[in-house]
Design goal:
16% strand; 3-stranded parallel β-sheet; globular; TIM Barrel; 7-stranded parallel β-sheet; alpha/beta
Length: 258
């Protein structure tokens, strides 16, 4: 009997995704972060069913939370506070011009365990630009982000994750980013929080879309007041409905190439 119990425990420990989230200080009923998923351009160069044929390998009711366009001084701290209260880790796709203005917020996000990807310097639609000029805009954003986060200006991203502003990609740019080892994130679900709406309306819209999709990459904006106001209720609702948060990180020690 004791051997049988041991065998069951061993199988559970070795099963993918079997590990449970660590306790959350001060919040025993926190949503938490269930597991970490390593993402590389060689295995998943482009993810998000709204834009691409494939997405991240997530199980039913597993979500990856992502935030675009920050940091922003009036809203990003509230987003970070909500995530910290629930011990949830997310990925922030940074705008270089906002990083220049608010570097301490980016360093706070890193210190609290979030992944920091890139979203250009000034948010142009890159498919409307010559490829060389578009890539220079990408590199400018990466360089400013790297300087603020790590103290070194470089176009090789420590976290090789990128999202196109407005999802406005092109075959040439997608191929170039894949060659550089940079994963391009689309999304599977979003709340359309670029449109005016109340936090309650945003919550209802997003939960309805999540329930329909059942899994995937969720896109939000940490620059939007309605999203910052809505986020605590969203995290509690996801916990109540049995969803789990997956955190994405690059391969250990992996860096993109020039």
């Amino acid at each position: 009997m004791r051997l049988h119990i041991f065998a069951i425990g061993l199988i559970a420990a070795l099963a993918p995704g079997a590990a449970t989230a660590a306790p959350c200080p001060g919040n025993a009923d926190a949503l938490g972060t269930e597991r970490v998923l390593t993402v590389t351009a060689s295995s998943t160069p482009r993810v998000g069913h709204k834009q691409f044929p494939t997405t991240l390998p997530l199980a039913d009711k597993e979500l990856v939370l992502t935030f675009d366009d920050g940091p922003w001084p009036t809203t990003t701290p509230r987003v970070l506070n909500a995530l910290k209260a629930e011990c949830v880790r997310a990925t922030f796709f940074l705008l270089g011009r906002n990083v220049d203005a608010h570097p301490a917020l980016v360093r706070r996000a890193l210190a609290e365990g979030h992944s920091l990807g890139h979203h250009t310097y000034s948010h142009p639609l890159l498919n409307h630009m010559p490829p060389a000029k578009a890539e220079a805009e990408i590199d400018r954003g990466i360089s400013r982000d790297e300087l603020a986060i790590y103290g070194q200006s470089r176009k090789v991203p420590t976290t090789p994750f990128f999202r196109f502003p407005g999802f406005a990609s092109s075959p040439a740019l997608l191929g170039r980013l894949q060659d550089r080892g940079i994963v391009v994130f689309g999304a599977d679900v979003w709340a359309s929080d670029w449109n005016p709406m109340t936090p309650a309306q945003e919550l209802e819209t997003l939960l309805g879309r999540i329930e329909k999709a059942r899994r995937g990459i969720v896109l939000l904006h940490d620059t939007k007041a309605q999203t910052a106001n809505m986020l605590p209720a969203l995290l509690r609702a996801l916990k109540k409905r049995g969803y789990h948060i997956v955190h994405v990180e690059p391969a250990s020690g992996g860096r993109a190439i020039n």
